[in-house]
Design a protein that fits this description.
Layout lengths: L7 E3 L20 E3 L31 H4 L4 H5 L36 E2 L2 E5 L7 H14 L3 E4 L12 H14 L2 E3 L8 E4 L6 E6 L6 H12 L6 E7 L9 H12 L6 E9 L6 E7 L9 E2 L5 E11 L4 H16 L7 E7 L5 E2 L2 E10 L4 E7 L6 H17 L6 H4 L3 H6 L3 E6 L4 H13 L3 E6 L10 E6 L9
Parallel strand pairs: 4-5, 8-9, 10-15, 12-18, 13-14
Antiparallel strand pairs: 1-2, 3-4, 5-7, 6-7, 9-11, 10-11, 13-16, 16-17, 18-20, 19-20
Helix pairs in contact: 3-4, 3-5, 3-11, 4-5, 7-8
Length: 478
C-alpha cells in the first residue's frame, strides 16, 4: 500500500473502474481507493484486497458500507494523510464473507477471524512474506494464543516455508515447548499451540544463508518475557540480501531498541555469506517485568557519519577501499561540513565463512538518533556501485526528516505494541512491512496504532508520526 492516502471515489464517479469480480457483497456500496502503488505479486498482478470472500479488486479496495459509515470525513473525502488513517481491509476466508482487520482514525477495529479457540491468519496478504509469520507466531507465543497461518507466502515465486522461516518457527516452538504442525519446507499452512516461555540455551540453524537477524527478530520479544535468562545461538547468513545486516543490528537496532528499557549482548562468532551461510551469532538477554514506551520524535542535526566497508574470503581489501571512497564522494555532494569515517575492513579468515563484501554507513544526530544505509556486493556488481547505493539510501533516510530509517521502522512495531504506555516514533513514508506489522499487532493484541502526517514547516519533508497505545505486557514469571 502507498504511504499517502490516494484519492477516494465511488463506483460510477468519473472514469468507470474495472468491476470487482466474484464479489458476494451485493447491495453494499463500495469506495474504490485508487492509487499507483498497490501491492503487486511477481509478474505485476495486483494483489486481491477486496473485503469480500471471493472478490478480487484490480481497481482498488472494496469498503463495506458498515465500515464506511464510521470513517472520519477526511478519509471519505480523500483529503491528505497516510492511508493508515483510513483502514486496512483484510480478505476473509472463502465462503465466510466476514470483514475484519480494519482500524480507522477513531479506533474502529474488528476482531481477528477465529476457528474455535485458534486465531486464523492469512499469510498471503499485505507484505505476504516471512514477516507475517514472525510477528504472528511471536505474539502467539507471548499471549498464549493458538494460531493457524494459511496461504504462507502465497504470492511468492516459491510459496510456502523456506529454511529460514522454518528455523524461526522451530526456535519459537522450542522457546515455549509448544506444538508445531505443518513445519516442513514448502508447507503453506501451519498450526502452532504455544506453551510456557522458558529461558536457557536455544539453537536455531537455517543451514543456508538465511538471515540470523530475522531469527533474532522472531525470538527476541519472546525471551524478554521468559522465566530466566536466555542464550540464543543463531546460525546462517549474517550479511544477507532482503534482511538487515548483522552490522546494522549491532550499530543501529541494538542502541535504539534498548530504549524500551532492556539490554542484550550480541556476539558475532563468525560471519556467513550467500550462498553457504555458515555464520553464527550468540545473543544473551535477561527477562524484564515490562517494556517502557519510547518517544523518538526529535531528529536533531547530524553530528557524525561513520561506517565500515568489508570484504571476506578471496576478495581483496581494495574492493572495500573502493566502496568506502565511492560512498564518501556521494555523501559529500549533499553534506560537506562533516568528517565521514568509513573504515575499509578485511574480515579475519577465522571469523568468516565463505566470500562476501558490503558496506554500512550510519548517521548519528544530536538527539541520539541513528539512521543508516547499507548494501551488499555480489558477482558482477561494481564496488563503486555498492558504495553509492548505500550512500543514496542513507541520504534518502536523512531527507524525510524522520528519527528512524526505513529498515528500523517495522522492527520497532512489536515492541511498541507490548510496551506499557504510549510510544511515539517519527518516521519517513510508512513501508509495507510496517503496515503489515501494525495490522497483525492490532489483530492479536490490545495495542492501538495511529499514523498521522507530521506537521512540518519544511514542505520537502515527508515525515509521519507512528503512535501506539501499548498493551502493557507483564511478565508473569517475575
Amino acid at each position: 500500500m502507498p504511504s499517502r492516502l490516494p484519492r477516494v471515489r465511488t463506483q460510477g464517479e468519473g472514469r468507470s473502474p474495472r468491476p470487482l469480480r466474484g464479489c458476494r457483497g451485493a447491495g453494499t456500496r463500495r469506495l474504490l481507493l485508487t492509487q499507483r502503488s498497490r501491492p503487486r505479486r511477481p509478474g505485476g498482478e495486483v494483489a486481491p484486497l477486496c473485503a469480500c470472500s471471493q472478490a478480487s479488486a484490480p481497481a482498488g479496495w472494496a469498503v463495506p458500507e458498515s465500515i464506511l459509515g464510521a470513517l472520519p470525513s477526511p478519509i471519505v473525502r480523500g483529503l491528505g494523510g497516510p492511508l493508515h488513517r483510513g483502514l486496512v481491509v483484510r480478505r476473509a476466508p472463502p465462503g465466510s464473507h466476514r470483514r475484519g482487520g480494519g482500524l480507522c482514525e477513531r479506533g474502529l477495529r474488528s476482531p481477528p477471524v477465529m476457528d474455535g479457540d485458534r486465531v486464523e491468519i492469512d499469510g498471503g496478504i499485505m507484505e505476504g512474506g516471512g514477516q507475517i509469520l514472525r510477528v504472528s507466531t511471536a505474539l502467539s507465543c507471548l499471549l498464549g494464543l493458538p494460531l493457524r497461518v494459511r496461504r504462507i507466502r502465497a504470492g511468492r515465486s516459491q510459496p510456502g516455508l523456506r529454511p529460514q522461516h522454518l528455523s524461526g518457527l522451530e526456535v519459537i516452538r522450542d522457546l515455549c515447548e509448544g506444538k508445531l504442525e505443518g513445519g516442513e519446507i514448502g508447507s503453506t499452512e501451519i498450526t502452532f499451540t504455544p506453551g510456557k516461555i522458558k529461558g536457557g540455551t536455544h539453537i536455531a540453524d537455517t543451514k543456508t544463508a538465511g538471515s540470523v537477524c530475522l531469527l533474532m527478530q522472531v525470538a527476541m520479544p519472546c525471551v524478554l518475557f521468559a522465566a530466566s535468562p536466555s542464550e540464543l545461538h543463531l546460525k546462517g547468513g549474517t550479511n544477507a540480501e532482503m534482511a538487515p545486516q548483522i552490522d546494522y543490528t549491532v550499530m543501529v537496532f541494538k542502541p535504539i531498541v534498548e530504549k524500551f528499557n532492556f539490554t542484550f549482548n550480541c556476539d558475532i562468532k563468525k560471519r556467513g555469506y550467500y550462498p553457504q551461510g555458515g555464520g553464527e551469532v550468540v545473543v544473551q538477554m535477561s527477562p524484564v517485568k515490562e517494556l517502557s514506551p519510547i518517544n523518538l520524535t526529535e531528529r536533531g542535526t547530524v553530528t557524525k557519519i561513520y561506517g565500515r566497508a568489508f570484504v571476506a574470503g578471496a576478495l581483496p581489501i581494495k574492493l572495500a577501499k573502493d566502496m568506502s571512497a565511492a560512498a564518501v564522494r556521494c555523501i559529500r555532494k549533499e553534506i560537506r561540513d562533516l568528517y565521514i569515517n568509513i573504515q575499509p575492513v578485511r574480515e579475519p579468515d577465522d571469523q568468516a565463512f565463505g566470500t562476501g563484501s558490503g558496506i554500512i554507513i550510519v548517521a548519528e544526530t544530536s538527539t541520539g538518533c541513528l539512521l543508516a544505509g547499507s548494501s551488499l556486493g555480489k558477482r558482477g556488481k561494481n564496488a563503486d556501485k555498492v558504495g553509492i547505493e548505500a550512500a543514496e539510501i542513507l541520504l534518502r533516510n536523512l531527507k524525510h526528516g524522520g528519527t528512524v530509517d526505513d529498515s528500523l521502522q517495522d522492527q520497532l512495531i512489536i515492541f511498541m505494541a507490548l510496551a506499557k504506555g504510549v510510544s511515539r516514533v517519527r518516521s519517513g513514508p510508512i513501508t509495507l512491512h510496517t503496515q503489515t506489522a501494525i495490522h497483525f499487532a492490532e489483530q492479536l493484541t490490545k495495542a492501538k496504532f495511529t499514523v498521522t502526517k507530521s506537521e512540518e514547516e519544511d514542505p520537502s519533508k515527508d515525515a509521519y508520526i507512528i503512535e501506539c497505545q501499548g498493551m502493557g505486557m507483564i511478565n508473569p514469571n517475575l
